[in-house]
Recover the amino acids of this structure.
């Protein structure tokens, strides 16, 4: 649990550093949650726990053998690698912004590659594609459930007319 707490705090700190370069009037999905440290910590923690749940309990439904504690270590390691990649991306973006964007795409690939292969190792799976598709499917399902829950408690997305101009810099 200590490893999870450390990587969550590091992830929030690096995200806060990255958001220093984003103007206050820019509206992006999820950015308001990440602008506030407490909600960012809660969001990161829920994400880490959900990934660990998927890597252990959901994988067991498909014949996996992983335990939740081991899955927490796995997700903490993946999250740490994402923190390191974000620090590199931030440093490179200061010098050469377009390269930072490319490295950002590379970080997404690295995330899925690490999560897929470490989940395979944790659960004794041998085929990459089913594990990768299972992860993508579970992320889509989790996103859908999150949207439904947030809508049920009254959180509504911004209308497209309000969000789009800020995103593309027309304000």
């Amino acid at each position: 649990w200590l490893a999870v707490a450390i990587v969550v705090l590091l992830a929030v700190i690096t995200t806060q550093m990255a958001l220093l370069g984003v103007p206050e009037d820019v509206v992006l999905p999820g950015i308001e949650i990440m602008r506030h440290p407490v909600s960012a910590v809660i969001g990161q923690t829920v994400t880490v726990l959900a990934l660990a749940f998927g890597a252990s309990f959901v994988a067991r439904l498909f014949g996996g053998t992983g335990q939740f504690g081991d899955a927490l270590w796995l997700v903490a390691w993946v999250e740490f690698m994402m923190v390191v990649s974000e620090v590199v991306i931030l440093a490179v973006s200061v010098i050469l912004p377009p390269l930072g964007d490319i490295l950002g795409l590379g970080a997404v690939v690295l995330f899925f590659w690490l999560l897929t292969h470490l989940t395979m190792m944790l659960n004794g799976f041998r085929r990459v594609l089913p594990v990768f598709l299972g992860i993508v499917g579970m992320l889509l399902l989790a996103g859908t459930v999150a949207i439904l829950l947030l809508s049920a408690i009254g959180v509504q997305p911004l209308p497209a007319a309000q969000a789009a101009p800020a995103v593309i810099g027309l304000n």
User: Anything to note?
Assistant: The radius of gyration is 17 Å. The CA atoms of residues 54 and 138 lie 7 Å apart. The chain is about 80% helix and 0% strand. Residues 163-171 have pLDDT under 50 and may be disordered.
